[in-house]
Design goal:
This protein has 241 residues and is mostly helical. Helices cover 59% and strands 5% of the residues. β2 and β3 form a beta hairpin. The radius of gyration is 20 Å and the shape is globular.
């Protein structure tokens, strides 16, 4: 890593350092969370096996084969771990989140070109996958998968915060010109376009930045401690930037 940085400082000091763009399949913060899974492989493996068993009856048989297939189901769990919001969701927000996951998987299906494609969409298969997503994420007392997943995701979410902050600091401090994609000044758990092109609340960002400036005029240490104690609102990421 240091050798690469030294070479870049010598040969390409003005290269762009981008961690999210308009075309990333998963935003920088989603990837930082998914990286956590590589650090807890045994727990992740056991969890996926449990979830597959809990969701077995939620699949649809098409030509004697389950939809989604094993790879697509794995992508579903991995994407959920990366994209699940930090804050509690009301009914409307939750419905929108389920819709985002659904659209992400349909796009993945078509780009994989195994069970569907852009040129020849397989409506039956895609509908089965949509139904699986809705069933797996249905909020009711009997959904043991959702309970298990939320408990698991809390650990990934916490560790992912520090992965994201570390990644951000490296981007800023390493050789090259750091680039900040619109909306990623705070936590951003977006997926492939058009999910990563949703409107950015610039007024809120401007207000938060002004507030940070005001509260760090003197000794910033107590304020930084407060930001770390309440990382959900994203101010810690904006402060570091």
């Amino acid at each position: 890593f240091h050798f690469h940085n030294q070479r870049r400082a010598r040969q390409w000091p003005n290269s762009l350092s981008a961690t999210s763009t308009h075309d990333t399949k998963r935003s920088e913060d989603v990837r930082a969370r998914i990286n956590v899974l590589s650090e807890i492989p045994a727990r992740w493996y056991r969890s996926v096996l449990r979830w597959q068993n809990l969701n077995r009856e939620k699949k649809t048989k098409l030509d004697e084969l389950p939809a989604p297939d094993a790879n697509e189901e794995y992508l579903f769990y991995q994407t959920l771990a990366g994209a699940w919001p930090l804050t509690l969701m009301d009914a409307e927000t939750y419905s929108a989140f389920v819709q985002r996951i659904e659209e992400y998987l349909i796009k993945a299906l078509r780009e994989a070109k195994i069970h569907s494609s852009w040129i020849s969409p397989n409506d039956g298969y895609e509908q089965a996958v949509r139904q699986f997503v809705h069933s797996a994420l249905e909020q009711n007392e009997g959904n043991d998968f959702l309970k298990s997943f939320i408990e698991f995701q809390a650990t990934v979410s916490r560790a992912g915060i520090f992965n994201s902050l570390s990644q951000l600091l490296l981007k800023i401090a390493a050789p090259g010109l750091p680039d900040f994609y619109q909306g990623t000044e705070l936590w951003n758990f977006s997926l492939v376009d058009p999910d990563n092109r949703r409107p950015v609340d610039y007024a809120r960002l401007k207000e938060m930045l002004a507030s940070l400036d005001n509260q760090t005029q003197n000794d910033a240490s107590p304020f930084v401690t407060e930001l770390l104690d309440r990382p959900e609102d994203g101010r810690i990421k904006l402060y570091l930037t």
